[in-house]
Amino acid sequence: MSTTRQLDTSDLEARVKDMYREVAEEPHKDFHFETGQPLAERLGYPPADLDRIPAQAIDSFAGVGFYFDLAAIAAGETVLDLGSGSGTDSFVAALHAGPDGRVIGVDMTDAQLDKATALAREGGFAGVEFRKGYIESPPVEPGSVDCAISNGVINLSADKPGVFAEAVRALRPGGRLALADIVTAVQLPEGITCDAALWAACIGGAMQRDGYRQTIEAAGFEVVTMRENTGYRFISDRASNASEKYGVTSISLLARRP
Ligand SMILES: C[S@@+](CC[C@H](N)C(=O)[O-])C[C@H]1O[C@@H](n2cnc3c(N)ncnc32)[C@H](O)[C@@H]1O
Q1: What is the pTM of this model?
Q2: Of 67, 136, 180, 242, which is least packed with CB atoms within 10 Å of its CB?
Q3: Which atom of ligand 1 is nearest to the CA of 112?
Q4: Protein residue closest via CA to atom 12 of ligand 1
Q5: DSSP string, 135-175
Q6: 203 CB-near residues (< 8 Å, 6+ apart)
Q7: How confident is the model over 183-224, as pLDDT tens digits?
Q8: What are 163-191's pLDDT values in tens digits?
Q9: 232 C-alpha to ligand 1 centroid (Å)
Q10: Is residue 35 in contact with ligand 1, taking CB distance under 6 Å?
C-alpha cells in the first residue's frame, strides 16, 4: 500500500474560498499574507494609478508582485484577469485598456465577485465585468483575449498545466500572459504540499521556479521575462518560516503565445 499523502482538492477549494471571502469582507483582519494599499505601493503599483481605482478594492488587494510594465496593455485591448479577487488588477488594467478596451475578471469566490461587481458599477467602470468561474476553465471565447493577467493565484491551483493550457486557448495568436506568482527555490516536501492551510496561504501550492517556467513553456508559451520581486513577504510565523526554509519568492513573468 502506498503511503504517499494526497492533497484533498475539495477541502482545498473550500479553504481557499473561506480565506478569500474573508479578504473581501474583512480586509483589515490578520492573514498569513499582507493586503491593501501599502503592499500594492511597495510592490510597485504607481500611486497615481491606485488613486484612480476604487479604494475598497485596494483594501482587499492580495497580489504578490507588479507586472503591468511587462503586460504593456494598449488602448482598446481585451484583458482576462485570472483570479480577479476584489478587482484591483482588473481596474488597473481598465485604466490602460481605456474606454474602447474590455476587462473580464474571473474568480470562484462569490464574496470577491460581488464586491468587485458592485465597485465596478459604483465607479463607472463600464468596460469591466466579473464572471464566476475557475481559472482552470475560464468562461471566455477561444482566441478572444489580447492579454491574460493574474496576480498571486496560479500557485493556488492544483492543475497548473490546465491553467496555462486554458490561457493559451483564451489568447489570440501573439497574445500575452503577464503575471505575478509565488515559486520556490526547491521542490516543497509533502508535509507542506499536503497542508491545505499553507496551500491556501499561497505557499503549499508553489512550484519550483524552473518547473514553473517549464510548465508554462509546455503549454505552448514562449517565456520572454521572468524576474524576482523584492518587497513581498509572508507575515505569520508559520508562513514566513516555511518561506525562508524553501526559498519561497515572488516572481513577475511575461510570456507570449506564438
Ligand atoms: C491571493 S487572491 C488574489 C486576488 C487578486 N488577484 C489580487 O491581486 O488581489 C487569490 C484569488 O484567486 C481566487 N482563486 C483561487 N483559486 C481559484 C481558481 N481555481 N479559480 C478561480 N479563482 C480562484 C480566489 O478566490 C481569490 O480571490
Answers
A1: 0.96
A2: 136
A3: 27
A4: 83
A5: TTS-SS-TT-EEEEEEES-GGG-S-HHHHHHHHHHHEEEEE
A6: 32, 155, 182, 188, 192, 234, 239, 242, 243, 248
A7: 999 988 888 888 887 888 778 899 999 999 999 999 999 999
A8: 999 999 999 999 999 999 999 999 888 88
A9: 17
A10: no
